Amino acid sequence: MQTITPEQALALVEQHWHLSGTAKELPSYADRNFKIHTPQGNYVFKIANPNWSHADLDIENAALLHLAKTCPDLTLPQVMLTRSGQHILPLITGGGQECHMRLLSFVEGEIYANVAVREDLDQHYLQTSLGIAIGKLDRGLENFQHASMDRYVDWSISNLPELQDEIAYVTEDDLRELVRHHTHYFAKQEATWKKTLPMSVIHNDANDFNVIVAATAADPKPHVNAIIDFGDMCRHLRIVDLAITVVYALQHVEKDQAVIDCIRAILQGYQSQNPLSKQEIQALYHVIMARLCQSILMATRAYRRNPDNDYILVSQKGVRRLIRQLNAMDYPYLQHLFLSVL
Description:
Elements: H1 6-17, E1 22-26, E2 32-38, E3 41-47, H2 54-70, E4 89-92, E5 98-105, E6 110-111, H3 112-115, H4 123-141, H5 173-196, E7 199-202, E8 211-214, E9 223-227, E10 234-237, H6 239-249, H7 256-273, H8 278-305, H9 311-314, H10 317-328, H11 331-339
Antiparallel strand pairs: 1-2, 2-3, 3-5, 4-5, 6-8, 7-10, 8-9
């Protein structure tokens, strides 16, 4: 990725968005992100990796501009336009590559991963608010369309069948059989689900670092009020967003009853904002298990390619615990639990 200092980042913001202040770099996996503090407010200046095309960024910004109209009660990042009305600008790197830069408003609050472990908070309220937020987000996206909505995304759950060759490299016998069973079931059912269940553009990455919690004047209890990072957006079953949300939220609860209570709270919150059909809810368990399989197989492949990185498997501890835990629960009971929100 290109070399750029906070001072250079701030100069670009001043040149194109006419905002002055201070710049501090933020952690990022592949891009360069800077928090820009100004008297007018805080912003995130984003310089995309050259591998990201203009179209990849345009679907993010277009979705945020759409959601500003359809979902005004969520505190989502706002797309900042230049004085000439542009929201994505080209930038030539020091190595001569073209990349793109954007400016978004900075969403204040704490990430869900930090708040979900606090014993002093009402976790049921927090979990319900998570379902409400994702329900609002999906409802706001239901009519959104974009030329790139069917693009290839690494973490699209449709790629799960392509990972089946990795199953043989899952070392634990019981886990390997679980992953094989649930992966094969998803591969067999996906085409039918796509024909019979609602499809839409989805966020596709409501992980516990992309969910923001805050207390507001309207609701002083800490609750989910924002979702960030729309980089993995794609078109799929709308229940995929809910399945991903459940998977990440359940990383922070371990006992069976806590898992059940968390699932119920998220589903009730979602259903209150974006009602699902009986057929969707019946498929939800299988999509949750498929997402867990995808996580396991992606990590298995990554570790096979980089066996010196033990952190890859350490970070999988919660995922592997959860797929075993859900599989061990009585399937008819879980389906009854899911359907109880209707």
